[in-house]
Design a protein that fits this description.
alpha+beta, single chain, Outer membrane lipoprotein wza fold like
Amino acid sequence: MTALALSGCMQTGSPVASIQPSSDLDAMAYGPPPIQAAAVADNGGGGAISALRASFATASLRAPSPTPAVVYAAPPAPAAAPQPAGYDTAYHLDAGDKLRVVIYGQEGLTNTYALDASGAITMPLIGHVPARGRTPAGLSTDITARLRNGYIREPSVAVEVEAYRPFFILGEVAAPGQYPYVPNMTVESAVAIAGGFSPRARRDYVTLTHTDVSGTSRIAVPMGTPIGPGDTVQIGERWF
């Protein structure tokens, strides 16, 4: 009877999963054991559902926290370096300039022409063409109009400066005189072309004479001042 009573109690109780205790050495070496959810039998036939709920609960306990995303910002682009200024494209022609005049399809008219003392060039067919004070583009338009007037049906003309008129440097330099001009020259480079200063030269400023369509000007300028074709640089003498 005692055996029957004990077997009846065992059938009515709910099975619970047991957790084996771990020793202190295991806890120190491997850390505490993971938490396990108890599996409880569902007498109503829902044992699978209860087990699935228990697995979700265990996964939520073990799921690591999301790692925040790291965003790297691109470095700012460097500022564009300033470009050096070129020579003035609205250059005004004068006596001494040498031009290259190209008439496309007309080899007999394409040639190099120099402005004479009157500031003009002389071309076949159209003859004397004034050029002083004009830009190369303006002279090209004039030549086109003259050729279209009874000579060429649709002329295409290009004019460019082949050689600029010279500049002049006088006074206290090693070799005063006239020299070929190149774009973007300064007083300092002009002195270097003339052989440098003489021992008695004044070196803080010079006198620059410039002539353009508005007239002639004469001013004292420092050594870094730009000069143009036809300008005259006068190097003075120092008093001490």
